[in-house]
Amino acid sequence: MIVSGTVVLTRSCREECGYCSFRKNGDPLIPLSRLGDFFSEMAKGKATEAVLVAGQASYELPHILMGLSRDKCTSFGEYLHQACRMAAERGLIPVINAGIMTPLELRTLAPVAGAVHIPVLSAELEGPGQAHFKARGRTKASSHEMIEKAHQAEFPYRLDFLVGIGETEVERASTILEYGAFCAADPFLQDIRIIPFQPTPGTVMHDRPPLSFDSIRSSIEQASKAFPVHPISVPAHLFSRFPELIEAGLNDLSSLPMVTGDPVLPTFPVPSLEMLRTRLVETDATLYERLSLLTPAATNRSELAKVIGKARDKVQARVASGLNLLDNRACFVCGEHNPHGLQITFQRRDENTSAANWVPGPAFQGYAGILHGGIISALLDEAMANTISGNGLQVVTVDLRVRFHHPIPVGCPITILGTRTGNHARIHSARASILAPNGSVMAEAEGRFAEG
Ligand code: SF4
C-alpha cells in the first residue's frame, strides 16, 4: 500500500458520465497559492504521494480559464506542472488523476510528475441512457491513445479499469486481456486498479445495481492473468472483502488516501493501518508500504530523484522503527476531523511550549459536575505530545504520571500547558499542567515520549 493524500484541484469537468458523483458544475480551480498548505499538511501526516485530482478537460470551461489566468498560467498543463513542483518540494511524489489528457499535457508533465492515472473502458457506451451518452471524450480509443502517448513521453502510469458501468461480462474480460497483451511489458506501467461501479444518489445511474461481487472477483482473476507481475488493487471501499479478493489475485492496496480521506467516495471511510492489519490477519497476506513508483524507468528520473529519495527514506524509517504513525487529523483530543473528539487547538508559545484554552462540557464529567480524570489525563498527555511534535516529530507516550490537585468543575474555562524539558536520544521528556482562570494548578503530569 501507499500512504497517500488527495487534493481536488477542481470538480469541474467537461464530461457528464452517468455514474459520476465527483463532478460539480461551476466548481472553481484551487489557486496555486493555497496548494502549499495542503501539501505541507499531507507531508506532516506522513504521506509519500500527493494525488492531484481534477475533472477531464476542465480547461474548456470559462471559469477554469479565469482561474488559470489568475494564476498566470497559459494552460492547464502549466498549472499542473507548478502544482507538481510544489508537492515535490514538500517531499511528496506528485501523481495526476485528471481523466484523459492530451499528448502535449503528457509531454509537459512527464518530467515533473511521478505518475498519471489512465482510465480504461471496456465498451463504447454512448447511446441514450448509457454511461457516456454525455461524455464523448470517454472512449476506448482515447484510453488506448493515452497509453501510447504516456509511453512515448516516458511518463509512468497506472491503469484504472472502470468495470460494471454497462459493458458485458465478455467485453470486460476481453478488454482486460487485450490491455495485458498491449502494455504488460511496458516499463512505464506501474500498477493496475480495478474500480467497480458503485451507484451513488444524485447520479444518472443511481438506480443501477452495483457490480456483483462475483464479477469483481472474476475481473481481478482476469487482471492477474493479464498482468502477472504487476500490483493489482481495488478501492478502499471494498475493504471488508479484501481477504476473499486476495484469494482471487488481489496483491496490493496501492494508494490509500489515509491522510485526507477519499474525496471521490467520501461516505466510505478509508481504513486505518490497524483496521487493515486486523482484516488481513485471517489471510497469509503481509501488509507492507511501498512507493508509487516501482520500475527503474519510473524511479531513475533526474528531476524527481530528490523527492523519490526522500519518500524512500520515510518508508524505510517507518519499517525500521516498527511503528507506522499516521496523523490523519482525527486524534481524539486535537484532531479537527474527528466529529466525536474534543477538537482542541494547541498554539505554540515558543519552541518548547504549547498551550490551549478549553471549557469542558457536561458530556465529559465523571462524578456529577466534575471533569473525568481520564479526560484530564488525555489533555495533559496531548499537551506534552503536542509541544514535542511541534518540533517536526511524531511521538507516542511511553510513560505518564498524573497528579490531580483539585477537582475541575464542568463549565470552568481552563488552560492546558505543555513544556518539553529535554531528550535522551529518541526519548523526549515533558511536563504539563491544567490551570484555573486564577492561575492555580488543578492537575499536573510528567511524561516520556518515544519518536515514531
Ligand atoms: S470524466 Fe471523470 S470527473 Fe468527469 S464526469 Fe466523467 S468520471 Fe466524472
Would you kindly provide a written description of the structure presented here, covering whatever features stand out?
This protein has an eight-stranded parallel sheet. The protein is built from twelve helices and 14 strands. 31% of the residues lie in helices and 21% in strands. 40% of the residues are buried. Helix 4 links the parallel strand 3 (93-97) and strand 4. The protein is elongated. Helix 6 (169-183) packs parallel to helix 7. The protein binds iron/sulfur cluster (SF4). Iron/sulfur cluster is lined by residues 13, 15-17, 20, 22-23, 55-56, 99, 135, 138.
Topology:
Blueprint (H helix, E strand, L loop, with lengths): L1 E9 L21 H13 L4 E6 L7 H9 L5 H14 L3 E5 L5 H7 L5 E6 L19 H13 L4 E7 L5 H15 L5 E8 L16 H14 L5 E2 L8 H7 L6 E2 L16 H8 L15 H4 L5 H17 L25 E4 L2 E6 L14 H17 L5 E10 L9 E11 L2 E9 L5 E11 L1
The structure holds iron/sulfur cluster (SF4).
The site of iron/sulfur cluster has 12 residues, from loops.
Q: What's the total count of β strands?
A: 14
Look up the CATH topology of the largest domain: TIM Barrel
Largest sheet: 8 strands, parallel
Q: What kind of oligomer do you see?
A: single chain
Per the principal axes of the C-alpha atoms, what is the gross shape? elongated
In short:
This protein has 452 residues and is of the alpha/beta class. Helix content is 31%, strand content 21%. Strand 3 (93-97), helix 4 and strand 4 form a beta-alpha-beta unit.
Descriptive key words:
about 20% strand, about 30% helix, alpha/beta, TIM Barrel, 8-stranded parallel β-sheet, Thiol Ester Dehydrase, Chain A, 6-stranded antiparallel β-sheet, binds iron/sulfur cluster, about 450 residues
